[in-house]
Amino acid sequence: MKPCIICVAITGSLPTKADNPAVPITVSEQIESTQAAFEAGATIVHAHVREDDGRPSSDPERFARLKEGVERHCPGMIIQFSTGGRSGDGKDRGRMLPLAPDMASLSVGSNNFPARVYENPPDLVDWLAAEMQRYGVKPEIEAFDLSHILKAHEMFGSGQIVGTPYIQFVMGVKNAMPADRNVFDFYVQTVQRLFGPDAPWCAAGIGRHQIELNQWAVAAGGHARTGLEDHVRLDRDTLAPSNAALVKRLVDLCGRLERPVADVSEARSILGLRAA
Ligand SMILES: [Zn+2]
Question: Considering the entire predicted model, what is its pTM?
Answer without folding.
Answer: 0.97
